[in-house]
């Protein structure tokens, strides 16, 4: 559908994230924060064993070295919000669409559950509701009202906490200002104790993400797939073969 | 009369009966979906807004500062009704206010039937829409019911009962103004430069 040779020049605000792999200690606070913020159901051990775990952000572990000198490297993996997303071109109902501010949006009420997008995603970050999500008795009281609870048969994925983005944008619009850098933080960025995750506008040359994005350590995962990811990983200084 | 003629006549009659039956079914479904549901107290916006000229913001307090407009509590109703049309009238003359006093004395909240609903996957904020309309027309806040709320809710000062809004099912009556369909939202967003991407409402 889209010509892979086209280089997209998205204008205006382009939300992006920087993941400093050297700073990540693998505490999984981002995963818990994401669950709490985005009403992600717990599928249970049986479904988990079938690879149906619902985590919008998960940690990938990479070990390197021989036995006494083994080093572990944690890589938080979330939806890369690709500028040239493989999931978007295959959705038959346009449930996976691109917004003008660089988000790869998933419209739950459009989704019919073909799972084509998850098969086409090179990062394996799209999660499918195989069964109706349930919460045990008092837990349904703690759901975030800003986020839709998905039904069974619906694909879901990291949205960069779009509910927070829209809220901040509307607040800024009502005050007649722009969203300032660092004001807006998704749940994972907010909860990261070592500040391994940084969120901001990639098109703003003064923002933290674009500054880190110009670093010599900056890489994008599976860049040769020409997906133009909006998540930039800062490669470890010492060992560069983790990527 | 030949067999073919008889057959033709029977088919015609069947089609006619089917059409009438179908129309009745459609009408029943339409009525069932859109008829005004009975509220626990027959509250009239016509009296409060039309005759008494109370601002919408006076009772729906959340509307200017939050996403949800909110329904006033029994306490809010009794702020006025402890005096207004309660003490000085005989008990039988104002049965609805007597009902309200009953709720107040039993310390029981009123279970209003929710009329304006959007589906779960739609996230609507009253605050933002009021701020936008007030910005566009600075005089709007002097009479918000007429210039702001009526844009979507219709002229409630003339409604003794708030009819259930016509949602996505518009079979016979067509697209009415009190309306929570996506087309109604998108038309206005398109005309007034509102955000047009999906995540503005669906997230």
Question: What would you note in describing this structure?
Answer:
The complex is a heterodimer of chains A (about 240) and B (about 200). In chain A, about 20% of the residues lie in helices and about 20% in strands. Chain A has about 240 residues and is α+β, with helices and mostly antiparallel strands. Chain A has one domain: Alpha-Beta Plaits (2-Layer Sandwich), CATH 3.30.70. In chain A, the strands form four sheets. Chain A has a four-stranded mixed sheet. In chain A, strands 2-3 form a two-stranded antiparallel sheet. The two termini of chain A are about 30 Å apart. In chain A, about 35% of the residues are buried. Chain B is mostly helical and about 200 residues long. Chain B has two domains: about 1-35; about 45-70 and about 110-200, no CATH class. Chain B has helices at about 5-35, 45-50, 55-60, 75-80, 95-105, 125-135, 145-155, 180-190. The N and C termini of chain B lie far apart (about 65 Å). At the A-B interface, helix 5 of A face loops of B.
Structural features:
heterodimer; A: 243 residues; alpha+beta; Alpha-Beta Plaits; four-stranded mixed beta sheet; two-stranded antiparallel ribbon; B: 203 residues; mainly alpha; 2 domains; 8 helices; extended
């Amino acid at each position: 559908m889209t010509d892979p040779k086209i280089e997209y020049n998205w204008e205006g605000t382009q939300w992006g994230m920087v993941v400093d792999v050297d700073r990540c200690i693998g505490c999984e606070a981002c995963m818990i924060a994401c669950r709490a913020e985005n009403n992600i159901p717990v599928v249970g051990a049986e479904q988990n064993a079938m690879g149906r775990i619902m985590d919008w952000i998960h940690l990938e572990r990479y070990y390197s070295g021989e036995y006494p000198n083994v080093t572990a490297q944690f890589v938080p993996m979330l939806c890369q919000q690709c500028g040239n997303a493989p999931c978007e071109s295959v959705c038959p109902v346009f449930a996976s669409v691109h917004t003008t501010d660089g988000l790869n949006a998933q419209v739950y009420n459009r989704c019919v559950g073909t799972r084509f997008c998850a098969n086409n995603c090179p990062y394996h970050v799209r999660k499918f509701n195989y069964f109706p999500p349930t919460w045990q008795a008092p837990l349904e009281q703690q759901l975030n009202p800003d986020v839709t609870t998905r039904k069974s048969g619906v694909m879901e994925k990291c949205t960069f906490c779009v509910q927070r983005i829209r809220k901040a944008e509307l607040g800024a619009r009502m005050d007649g200002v722009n969203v300032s850098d660092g004001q807006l933080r998704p749940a994972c960025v907010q909860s990261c104790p070592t500040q391994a995750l940084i969120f901001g506008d990639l098109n703003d040359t003064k923002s933290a993400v674009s500054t880190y994005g110009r670093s010599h350590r900056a890489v994008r995962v599976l860049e040769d797939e020409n997906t133009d990811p909006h998540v930039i990983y800062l490669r470890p200084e010492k060992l560069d073969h983790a990527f | 009369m030949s067999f073919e003629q008889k057959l033709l006549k029977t088919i015609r009659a069947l089609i006619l009966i089917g059409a009438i039956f179908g129309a009745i079914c459609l009408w029943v479904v339409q009525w069932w979906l859109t008829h005004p549901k009975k509220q626990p107290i027959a509250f009239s916006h016509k009296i409060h807004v039309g005759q008494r000229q109370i601002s919408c913001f006076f009772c729906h307090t959340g509307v200017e500062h939050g996403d949800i407009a909110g329904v006033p509590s029994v306490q809010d109703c009794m702020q006025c009704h402890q005096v207004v049309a309660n003490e000085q009238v005989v008990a039988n003359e104002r049965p609805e206010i007597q009902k309200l006093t009953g709720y107040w004395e039993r310390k029981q909240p009123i279970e209003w039937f929710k009329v304006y609903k959007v589906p779960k996957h739609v996230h609507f904020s009253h605050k933002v829409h009021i701020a936008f309309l007030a910005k566009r027309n600075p005089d709007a806040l002097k009479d918000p019911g007429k210039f702001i709320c009526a844009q979507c809710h219709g002229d409630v000062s003339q409604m003794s009962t708030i009819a259930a809004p016509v949602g996505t099912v518009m079979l016979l009556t067509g697209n009415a103004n009190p309306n929570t369909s996506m087309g109604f939202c998108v038309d206005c967003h398109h005309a007034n430069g509102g955000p047009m991407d999906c995540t503005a409402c669906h997230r």
